[in-house]
Amino acid sequence: MSAEPAEAEAARFRDDWAGLLAAGHGAAVHPGILHRLVARTAGLLHRARREDPFEVHFAEQAGALLVDAHFTDPAVLARAIALLHRQPDGNGRGPAVCGAFAAGWAAALRERTLREQEAIRTAADSARKEAEKALRASEARFRALFESAAIGIGIGDTEGNILAVNKALQEIFGAGPEDLQGHKVNELVHPEDTPGVWEAYEDLVSGKREYLQFDKPYYRRDGEVVWTQLTVSLIRDDDGAPQYQVAMLEDITDRYRLQERLRHQATHDSLTGLPNRAAFFERLEKIFEEPEPGARFGLCYVDLDGFKVVNDSLGHETGDQLLTAVADRLKAALTPLGHLVARLGGDEFVVLLENCRGEQEAVAAAKTVLNALDGPVHIGDHRLAVGASVGVLERRVATTTPGAAVRAADLTLYRAKEAGRGRWTLFDPKETARAVSRYAVSVRMPAALDRGEFFIDYQPLHALADGSLAAVEALVRWRHPQLGVLGPDEFVATAEETGLIMPLGRWVLEQACGQAADWERRFGAAAPQMNVNLAVRQARNAGLVGDVGRILQTTGLNPSRLQLEITESTVVGPEDEALKTLHKLVDMGVSLAIDDFGTGWSNLAYLRDLPVSGLKIAGSFVGDLHDPRKDEPTGWRIVSGLVSLAHTLGLTVTAEGVETRGDADRLRAIGCDWAQGWHFGRPVRPAEIARRIAEGGPPR
Amino acid sequence: MRRPDWVPAGTDLDKPNAARVYDYYLGGSHNFEVDREMARKAMALWPDLPMIMRSNRAFLRRAVQFVAESGISRFLDIGSGIPTFGAVHEVARAIRPGSEVVYVDRDPVAVAHSRLLLEHDLLSHVVQADLREPEDILSRPEVRELLAPGEPVAVLLVAVLHFVTDAEDPWRSVSVLRDALPSGSALVLSHASLEGRPDQAEDHQALYRMTPTPLTMRTHDQIASLFEGFELVDPGVVYLPQWHPENPAAVGEHPERMTGMAGVGLRP
Which Pfam families does this chain map to (chain B) (predicted)? Predict the structure, then answer.
């Protein structure tokens, strides 16, 4: 081993030292900085090894400088010691230099580690304090929001314990926090709670829904009721489990009360407090909306006797007091029976019986009315005897309309008045029709045709086999200026008596045939047959055949599309002139059907001689099936008998008055061909029929 | 307007944090036991990690030198973490004294540490914000001031975009920042890649899924597409040691072992 010159040895060490530091961490250091570090530390180590006197701290300093430059990897230390150890050791300082270098590196690393740990802890601490400060600020914001919100806010747990309430909520309840906090949410039940609100609440706290909103009443601390718009939201924890409920309440009492008052005003009579005319009609119309088959109702139309005299002689004030007293008595006597008492205006009152069990019940109600008004009424010094007349109407819902029913009850009332006061009179259709004609129909009818007051609705007839629309029946209506819309049963009899049936019948034929021809053009084979009623007097008129021929020609309607409905009484015997007319019509290609079969004195013997091709079983046969007083199996046997009789004669059978799917199914099973009634559709405007033809299928 | 945070972000010291884990890989002590535990596990699976981190740190230094030498003296370092040594302002000022730097990180501890470190540095600022909300970053006064003169700014996204998942759309973040940059600005970017050590990628990502900052390693093409709207400086997107090495030996025989890819782009 030759000793190399000291300078060459120093240069070689520097190169090795530089290579050692350049590896690893050295790559991340700027080359210039690294170069200076290499020169500095190599210099220090050289001085430690060679300079006299021996200064061990040069080696320590070199180790510390490496740590300062972030050479903190212990592998660097290992490699450095190994390199130092390999250097020639002429003066025996080698081990001491290695030791001092390692000590310097370790001491610096220890200092650095402690410093960095201190720094990162300080940083973490400072970050935590910042976060806490931010959290406090956030809490303060929430607290301010909660406390000063104009809306009432309450927080509860999922067991329903009220945990916190804000000021606005305390004000809504007129309570202090102690009256609410610690109490249970379900103590806040109120009898007028919307149905479903508590079920929704249970769903919310059990996590099945997130949110609910209702208008809800609460009892205040002072016992008053406060109406609120309530919104409750569910708060879940990090795992999604229900944790809190937050309720927000807005006091809407004023708005609610106003609404209630407006509604009460709109539906109640301000003098007597009874439901008014609007409320009465609302209830009545509701009965007609979706009636059960066979549902019945009753009306007692009440008018005070001699009220005008009281009013005129004792003054309006006394009159008003009398009306109030009457209202109170009627209400006290009839409301417990479940009937509605309303004031229609003036001295007219009405009693409505929903789900009426029959005429007897309606009559009993009328008697109750008269009994209630039996004793005299004391007003001031006066003892006033009050009497009243009552018109009683009791019908199946399906057989009438609200307007017709009230009109009929009113007319029945007038019959009661005419018959002598202080009594009730039961509705009689014939009497009513007579009354209609007497009061309003006969006089006006001639002009009505010219004024265009008549119009036609069409009721569908469906084939039972496939549900298709087979025919429609034209039904004439009269939009009477005073009486409202009248049906044929209310004025046709009068028209026959007065002879007006002739021009009216012609008009109906023209309209119906025109309509049928229009549908035929638009829908071809899908267009329904047109059925038009023929009054007895029309059938007996020699001009009928000419009229029908002319109308078919002008409208262009295919005669086979027209069916005329006659009643059993149209033809009274084999020699009847009307028979010739009917044959002539059939010869033209028009078909005939017997309408309302079973209601007259049908002479079955010559039914076979009539040139008819159809038979319509009167609605009362099907209607009777639902009459609890009549045996249903017998009813079905009668209907079935009529169907087979008609089929024996080769006639197409139509059942009228079919109101339920069940009846329709049974009639189909019996073999009945066609059916007509509410189940298949009420009389409607022609546009609605057109829509149904276009749709093609059965109505439901 | 930035709305107040209703519930401020907490400082969760029970979970390892990417910035402190990175510090540990680099031999620093700015970390806690949870961080070291996580780092030790990762290193047991993948002993090259400290070397990779050093390589990334070396790229940062070379890239900052490069952009500083090309005349840029404004820096926006997003995801700056804990600037243990060779922080951007030090490297940049060695070339361009007076360089201004805004450090952005979303970790409150890293931010607090940086603030302590830079307390007396008037030309450096620290902002707590999240790269996934680039509009928020751009709205901060410190950042607006940096951009206000219209001089070129270097945006540094070094080893940070792999902490943004695909669903969080890192491409959008970069494009929002890009659109705010004046002409001549630079994008300095490095990113964990799937190609270098595909055998390690899944385990490593699995480990980071336990941290608040899951890792999404991406392919070369995906990383290159982050430079949309920039002109890539030669040699483009390459493995960390391959980008502007100071001498050919520094690249080493297996640059792909460093797995990270890096590049610098300039905004025309």
Answer: Methyltransf_19 (PF04672)
Tell me: pLDDT of B161 over 80: yes
Q: Domain check: are A464 and A575 in the same one?
A: yes
Q: List residues of chain B with CB under 8 Å from any CB of chain A.
A: 4-11, 13, 20, 26-32, 50-51, 54-55, 57-58, 61, 65, 82, 84-86, 91, 94, 108-113, 115-117, 246, 250
| Number of domains into which chain B is organized | 1
pLDDT in tens, A446-470: 788 888 899 999 999 999 999 999 9
**Token couple for B64:** 């900052």
Please give the share of chain A, as a percent, with pLDDT higher than 70.
Answer: 96
Interface test with A, best of B49, B85, B243 (most A CBs within 10 A): B85
What beta strand segments (E) does A118-258 contain?
152-157, 162-165, 211-219, 225-236, 242-251
Predicted local distance difference test score (pLDDT) of residue A93:
87
Taking contacts as CB-CB distances below 8 angstroms, the residues of chain B near A119 are: 30, 113, 116-117
Which of B106, B113, B239, B247 to substitute to test the interface with A, most A CBs within 10 Å?
B113
Q: Is residue A583 in some structural domain?
A: yes
Largest Cα separation within chain B, whole Å, is 54
**Pair A317, A348 in one domain:** yes
Range(s) of the domain holding residue A37: 6-119
**What is the separation, in whole angstroms, between the first and last Cα of chain B?**
31
Residue range A497-516: mean pLDDT, rounded: 90
ipTM entry: 0.84
Q: How confident is the model at residue A700 (pLDDT cuts 50, 70, 90)?
A: very low
Closest CA to A623 of A569, A567, A679: A679
Q: Nearest 5 degrees, angle CA A349-CA A355-CA A361?
A: 65
The answer to whether position A445 is within a domain reads no
Residue A131 has pLDDT above 80, yes or no: yes
Residue B8, pLDDT above cutoff 80: no
Query: Domain count of chain A?
Result: 4
